[in-house]
Amino acid sequence: MKIVLVNTAENMGGAAIATKRLMQALRSDGLDATMLVRDKTSADPHVVALPGRFQQRFNFFAERAGVWAANGFRRRNLFVVDTAAFGTNILRQTLVQEADVVHLNWINQGMMSLASVAQLLKAGKKVVWTLHDMWPLTGICHHAEDCRGWLASCGNCPKLLRPAAQDLSRQTFEKKKRTYGSARLKIVACSNWLADLARQAPLLQASEVFSVPNAIDTQFFSPGSKAEARAALGLPQDKRLILFVAYRVTDEKKGIQHLIGAANHLIAAQPERKADWGVVLAGREAAIAAERFPCSVYPQAYISQAEQMRLLYRAADVLAMPTLMDNLPNTIAEGMACGLPCVGFRVGGLPQMVDDELNGYLVPLADAETLARRLFEVLTTSSYPQLSLNARRKAETNYGAARVAARYRAIYETS
């Protein structure tokens, strides 16, 4: 069986990482899987880049220009919405023509247009679409947050400068409805939370919805020497370390402000123990965010290598995940596979991953004081070895590559 997994990038971003790992897992399971991308960054022969570099750049800038204009030529929300007004007709690619299944993933920012999705469906291709965020459900946004407009037909979009009944979100919603509103797609959500939203979505009422987590290599992401990891990263051996990871650390949607608040609460509650712990920030603008903390902070630059991420997970004592909205974060699964307990807000797909008091703790949304208390509990509890062991077992049972590949194979083989 020939599978083509389509994603905008090969390695940049959570969706790209998840898609490439799935491709590798499928190949290990005996399937002929190939990844088709716009942005190829490796020499992997099983990853194919779209031809026509100039055309790809044009598609990106033309699609962004429409969003920019709709927002009064401001940068605000420039990359939180997509219109899919421009993109590539991937049916022109031989590997797509020969594929038994075309597996769409994150196809935004000029990779594919709604017109190219329509062409794919018109050709009668079997299409599976993995949801890495809410964009296929909504008019234009990737995360609807508190907005419920996508349950009707969008319009009056809070992401736009001048919301209106017939604004860009409504226009794009109607295009999506014409494109795949009546199509019988195989929709796969990475979390039960997103699968539940997909089943409510008017745009996907004709589709079948599955919930399958992202795959990780639990042999690679595994427990290891904390002392060796800290030595390799230049981190102190004598502190308990809280790890926070984000593509851009200062992105408030990832909750950095609440971790700062938690650090303040920790110091207020236990001032005499301030020297016992510290925070490791990993991602772009980590050094900028570090200046806002009242405690010892160890910023790490954006890390794209899995080996470096594994060192971070092994070096830390707890993973802080105060995200305000997320699907099924790769970071939590990877950390758990390395035996790292997680403390995060009870949002999105986190309750599916973090079993409260077994492999970490769940905290009410935006509650920095409780976040501080739970982080401190993990750092000081005598039952830490059991928390760590439970985290590892959860990852092995739920996120192992072979298990995930088998579940996708079953979806591909259904009529």
Outline:
The chain is of the alpha/beta class.
Provide an overview of this structure:
One of its GO terms (molecular function) is glycosyltransferase activity. This is Glycosyltransferase. It comes from Alloprevotella tannerae. With 415 residues, the chain is an alpha/beta fold. The chain has two domains: 2-215 and 401-413, Rossmann fold (3-Layer(aba) Sandwich), CATH 3.40.50.2000; 226-399, Glycogen Phosphorylase B (Rossmann fold, 3-Layer(aba) Sandwich). The protein contains 15 helices and 13 strands. It has helices at 14-28, 53-70, 94-97, 114-122, 168-180, 192-200, 226-233, 256-269, 286-290, 306-315, 330-337, 350-353, 368-380, 384-399, 401-413; strands spanning 2-9, 32-39, 47-49, 101-104, 126-131, 186-189, 208-211, 240-248, 277-284, 297-300, 318-321, 342-345, 360-363. Strands 3-2-1-4-5-6-7 form a seven-stranded parallel sheet. Strands 10-9-8-11-12-13 form a six-stranded parallel sheet, sandwiched between helices. Helix 8 links the parallel strand 8 (240-248) and strand 9. Helix 1 packs across helix 15 and helix 11 (330-337) crosses helix 14. The longest helix has 18 residues, at 53-70. It starts with a strand and ends with a helix. 48% of the residues are buried.
